[in-house]
Amino acid sequence: MATARLPSKLPGVLLISALFAFSAACADSKWASGGDDGSRDVIRTLYLATLPPDLPTVPFVDPARYAGTWFEIASIPQGFSVGCQCTTATYGVIASDLISVDNQCNLNSPTGPANTISGRAFVTPGTGNAKLEVEFFPIFRGAYWIIGLADDYSWALVGDPYRGSLFVLSRARTLDAGTYGNITALATNLGFNVAALSLTPQTGCL
Length: 206
Known about the structure:
This protein is an alpha+beta fold. Helices cover 25% and strands 32% of the residues. It is built from four helices and nine strands, in the order αααββββββββαβ. Strands 1-2-3-4-5-6-7-8 form an eight-stranded antiparallel beta barrel. Strand 2 (84-95) and strand 3 form a beta hairpin. The radius of gyration is 19 Å and the shape is globular. 33% of the residues are buried.
């Protein structure tokens, strides 16, 4: 399912951020005493410019209740989701800080060939299980932050701090218009461009 996969634009942003962080650290050591303050200030400014605005998450997620299958109702399209219909994600609790992830969609039609991928999600300590890093390949991990969640776990809103990915998930294949409107209003308030959301076809699925 698209929700847990690495956002297509995120690795480059993270790489830039990491490079600036490294440069800033070098600047601190190289110019710590009477060095080139102007260069150091420029590097710090550039580094800080790569950091995303704060993105609050829900205070707590019960992994056992969150586990199971979710249907993707809408998402900001990513490169890996082109042609995907009937998209689902199934999560399982492996350990207190480790979740299994199985994503699936049908390509180009509700009855098209299945496209699947499996990975793991690592819970970030001290976040109430609301911030995870999803890994499908050993080198890369993508941010999976739960920023909205129904009291009865009937829907969830997932995004990343750079606002490049956003997913509306539901336990059912459909959401009523009122609930969907409330979810998109929440996303707007959190700084996401909801006009970029695309509804995921969930009818006629196998």
